[in-house]
Design a protein that fits this description.
Layout lengths: L1 E5 L2 E5 L7 H38 L4 E6 L4 H10 L7 E6 L6 H7 L5 E4 L2 E5 L4 H11 L1
Keywords: Electron transport, Transport
Organism: Onychostoma macrolepis
Pfam families: Glrx-like (PF05768)
C-alpha cells in the first residue's frame, strides 16, 4: 500500500507489482481530475462572489440634484420630505440665484424646487414619493 497525502486526508492507492505501472497511472489520473474539478468549482464560486461584490461596489449612488434659491419655503418642505430617502442617493443643491447658474435661473425661474435624478428631469414644486421611489429603483 502507498499512502498519499491529498487535501489533508490520507488516500490509499493500492499497488500491486504484478499488475504493472498502468494501474497506478489510472488511479493517479482519476485523483488528479477530481482534484482539478474541485479547484475549478471553488474558483468559479470565489470569482462569482468577487464579481458580485465589485458590481455592488462600482454601482454609483444616484445623484439627486435640487435646484433652489434663498428664500424658498417649498424647497425646505421638499428637503424634509426627502429625508427618509437620503441613504439611497447623493443630494446636490444648485442655487440658481448665483451668477454661474444663470442658465438654470432662465430655465426654471419661479418654478422651484426642481429635481433632476442623474441629470434627467424628475419633478418640480413638490416631492412625488411614488415617482421618486420608482426612479430610484430603476437607477439602482
Amino acid at each position: 500500500m502507498i499512502y498519499v497525502k491529498f487535501n489533508n486526508h490520507k488516500r490509499i492507492i493500492s499497488y500491486s507489482w504484478w499488475k504493472g505501472h498502468g494501474e497506478m497511472k489510472k488511479k493517479k489520473k482519476k485523483n488528479f481530475l477530481s482534484c482539478f474539478r474541485r479547484v475549478i468549482i471553488i474558483t468559479v464560486m470565489l470569482l462569482s462572489g468577487v464579481v458580485r461584490a465589485v458590481r455592488q461596489h462600482c454601482r454609483r449612488t444616484p445623484v439627486l440634484t435640487l435646484f433652489t434659491k434663498e428664500p424658498c419655503p417649498l424647497c425646505d418642505e421638499a428637503k424634509a420630505a426627502l429625508e427618509p430617502y437620503r441613504h439611497r442617493f447623493e443630494l446636490q443643491e444648485v442655487d440658481i440665484s448665483r451668477p454661474e447658474n444663470r442658465v438654470w435661473l432662465d430655465r426654471y425661474g419661479q418654478h422651484i424646487p426642481v429635481f433632476h435624478l442623474n441629470g434627467q428631469f424628475l419633478m418640480q414644486h413638490r416631492v412625488n414619493a411614488a415617482l421618486l421611489e420608482k426612479r430610484l429603483e430603476e437607477a439602482q
